[in-house]
Design brief:
Layout: H1 3-24, E1 41-44, H2 50-61, E2 72-73, E3 89-93, E4 106-110, E5 119-123, E6 131-134
Parallel strand pairs: 1-6
Antiparallel strand pairs: 2-3, 3-4, 4-5, 5-6
């Protein structure tokens, strides 16, 4: 095999390897992981607004909560959270500075013990999407 042919063969192999890598690695590095069986991405606690961190502390303390609806059952009618029996999820308002109403931000937690939830999810678009809060 001549030198030119070896270079061409080597170049073809390198291009094939790079092409395979590019096809397999289409997920951007910033895409959060998705929970199995759901369309819910994750969000680190540090990524929550400051008010969200305050609400998480209040949830673990059992209150007091600012809004009457906080701590009530969340029905998951949108079916965006993992399927559970009614009563599993509870919702909490994450206040938005400058608003005189509840706004769109919520934390929804699931579990049998509200002070010790199995998982909590954050939405900043009034239940159109959720992200699992990870510590």
């Amino acid at each position: 095999m001549g030198t030119g042919r070896r270079v061409l063969t080597l170049a073809t192999l390198v291009l094939a390897a790079v092409g395979t890598y590019l096809v397999q690695d289409q997920t951007p590095a910033t895409t959060p992981p998705v929970l199995p069986g759901s369309a819910v991405a994750s969000l680190a606690v540090a990524g929550l607004p400051a008010q969200g961190n305050e609400v998480l502390v209040m949830i673990r303390q059992g209150g007091p909560f600012r809004y009457e609806k906080d701590g009530t059952v969340f029905g998951n009618r949108e079916r965006l959270l993992p399927s559970q029996k009614r009563g599993y999820y509870r919702e909490y308002t994450v206040p938005t500075p400058g608003l005189s109403h509840r706004g769109a931000r919520r934390i929804v937690c699931g579990g049998q013990q509200p002070k010790r939830p199995d998982a909590c999810f954050y939405t900043d678009d009034h239940y159109s999407s959720f992200r699992l809060i990870v510590e």
